[in-house]
Structure formats: structure tokens, C-alpha cells
Amino acid sequence: MSISNKIEEVTGQFDLHQKWEDRYKELINFGKQMPPLEDAQRVEKYMVKGCQSQVWLIPELRDGKIYFQGDSDALIVKGILGLLVKVYSGETPDTILKDRAEFLKDIGIYEHLSMNRTNGLASMLKTIKLYATAYKAMLESQR
Fold first, then answer.
1. CATH no. for residue 83?
2. Which DSSP string do the residues of 73-85 spell out, in sequence order?
3. Catalytically active residues, by annotation
4. How far apart are CA 108 and CA 94, in angstroms?
5. Closest CA to 127 of 62, 27, 35, 47
6. Using one digit for the tens of pLDDT, what is the confidence trace for 107-123?
7. How many domains does the chain have?
8. Which in 2, 37, 38, 77 has the greatest CB count within 10 A?
């Protein structure tokens, strides 16, 4: 599934709900769909810096695409992470780097998060882009 199809699917899920309370529940469902990480995976090198909650994001490069696993100790934050993992996992570094994450504005997430959670979301996006940049450089050096 292309990134635009994944974004369309995600925004469609949120468009089904008019009230933000229902959208919060939808966000939490994204987190519930993510399997928890093993304790051995919850290490410092995978922690997302800049989040008030503990957030781990593990990238894996396979066949030129990045696949993400993640977890958090906070339900809403895990939902935000789950949303990002759903959209960006399985994409090439170039695709990730080109996407401007406009879908987050479209679903209204910024309007309903606290300043700390908004900063955490920005940190998660930044981390995803940093992994994409690193993998892109690695792939280019192998050519």
C-alpha cells in the first residue's frame, strides 16, 4: 500500500468521528494495535529524545524500506506513535523524507494535544526522519 493510500485510510478513520473524544479513542486504538516491545528492546539507543513519556522507536531496513516497531509507557503517546508507525513503516527513506506529515493537521491532532505532547509528536517525527536520512546515506554509499 502506498503512503498516500495509508494516509487516506488514516484520515478516513478519523473523519468518521465528529467529537474529539471519539478521535482520542481512535488514536488510542492505533497504540493498541502495536505489539509491545520486549524488555530487551527497551534500551536507551531506541529512546526518542524530547518526549515527556518514555518512547522507543526501533527501525529496521529491509529491501530498501524502513520498518518501525515502537512502544510507550503512556496510552495516548503510544497511539500517536502507532499512527506514525502505520503511515511510515514499510516506506523508502526517500518517501519518508519527502512527506510533510500534513495528514496530522488534517485530522486535527495539533489542536487537541497539550504542548508537551505536541513537542513529543515533533520529536517522534524528527526521529523517523533522522532514521530515514541515515538509511538513505547508507544505501547511497553501497551503490
1. 3.90.1010.10
2. SSHHHHHHHHHHH
3. 51
4. 26
5. 47
6. 999 888 889 999 999 99
7. 1
8. 77
Distances (CA, A) of 111 to 71, 83, 104, 115: 23, 16, 10, 10
**Backbone phi and psi for residue 98, each to the nearest 5 degrees, phi listed first:** -80, -25
Query: What length is written for the chain?
Result: 143
Among residues 87, 89, 79, the alpha carbon closest in space to that of 58 is found at 89
Listing DSSP states for 48-68 in one string gives PTT-SS-EEEEEEEETTEEEE
Residue 143's pLDDT band, with cuts at 50, 70 and 90, is: confident
Q: What digits encode the pLDDT tens for the residues 123-141?
A: 999 999 999 999 999 999 9
In terms of residue numbers, what domain contains 30?
3-141
Question: How many other C-beta atoms lie within 10 A of the C-beta of residue 40?
Answer: 6
Cell matching residue 94 = 526517500
Q: Cell triple for residue 124? A: 517522534
